[in-house]
Structures are given as structure tokens and as C-alpha cells.
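Exercise: predict the structure of this protein bound to 5-O-phosphono-beta-D-ribofuranosylamine.
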Amino acid sequence: MTRHAPAIAVLCSGQGTNLQAILDAARRGRLTARVALVLSDRPGAKALERARRAGVAAYDVDPKGYPTKAAYERELIRLCEAAGVRFICLAGFMRVLSPVFVHRFRSRILNIHPALLPAFPGTHGARDALAWGVKVTGVTVHLVDEHVDHGPILLQEATPIAPNDTEATLLAKLHRIEHRLYPRAIQWMVDGKVRVRGRTVRVVR
Ligand code: GRF
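Solution:
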């Protein structure tokens, strides 16, 4: 990875296994981006620990410390801009970003979701797929727009649901897929290979 690799910020709320996959991909040169910043809205998030262990600047920005959502997001934007961030990757960030934030980084925010969108948006993609009884689910990486789990889709991968799958076993399968897919999608963005037209995304080779 060169010093000129574009800087990315990863926003997390929890375990940060996707953050770890991104950090590992960057370390191994499979992703030519530099994780410059990790932000969490939860002080105890394991993701922060993973970032610090990797020598990445990591801050818990607790919304409780801000009078309004707008003030909170202004701080997130300030930190991202100060770090020279080009792309923002949401990886289990349990907060809906406002249109102001989305416009600030238009077409430069990615999200990963544990279901085949537009099916099963929201917090419990795997649980909802199991409850519905679908036989196939998967992972989606998409660009973030003003609506939740809604923006143009970059990449999806399907996996069958086995009759004996529980939420835990299904999540484990989905995580393995996520850890492969997310760095790949980020690399497409870094390489400028993604063309967006309305809802349609074309990846130029
Ligand atoms: C992932 O399943 C992702 O799809 C969803 O939140 C989860 C985050 O997991 N948006 P982790 O914190 O990366 O382990």
C-alpha cells in the first residue's frame, strides 16, 4: 500500500469483524486503501479496540454528548474531513445518517447488509429471513442514499438457508461472505470502477 492510497473511514457500533476484514485486506495489499479513521457511536465497541491494535485513529463519538443529531453528525463530518477521508464504509453502524451527511459524501458512502436487499432491510436481516422461511438469503454491499438499506447495489452473494440453521449459524455464514465481499467492493470504489446511473451500478473492468 502506498502513502497515496485513498483514506477511508469505517463507522461501527459493535464487534467490528468487517472492520477487521478491511484492515486485514489493506495490510495484505488486497485493498489499496488506508483505513485512516474508525468511529463508533458506542464507547465500549470492540471495533475501537481492533482499530487501535492496528494503529488506526479511533474515536467513540457518543451521540449522548451532543444536543442534536445535526450537531452529532457535524462532529462526524469534521473528523472525516480532518482525516482526509475519501470513502466512508458503514460496518454495523446502528444509526441512520441524515440527508445532510449523505449529501456531504454523496456516492462515497458504502454499507453492508446481511440479506439480499431489497428483501429484509433493517436491523435483523438474518433473523427476518429465517422467520419468513426463505430458502436463500445473502449479503448486499450498496451505496448509501437518504433511505435505510436502500441505495444502488454494488455487489450481492447468495447462500442457501439450511433446515437446521439458527440465527447464529446463519449469521456466521453471512459474516464469512461479508468479510470477502466488502473489501472487494471498496477496492472497486478506490479503483474508480463504479458507474452509477439511477439505481443501476455498472462496474467497469
Ligand atoms: C454485519 O452483519 C453487517 O452486515 C451489519 O452489521 C453487522 C456488523 O458486524 N450491517 P461486525 O460488527 O462487522 O462484526
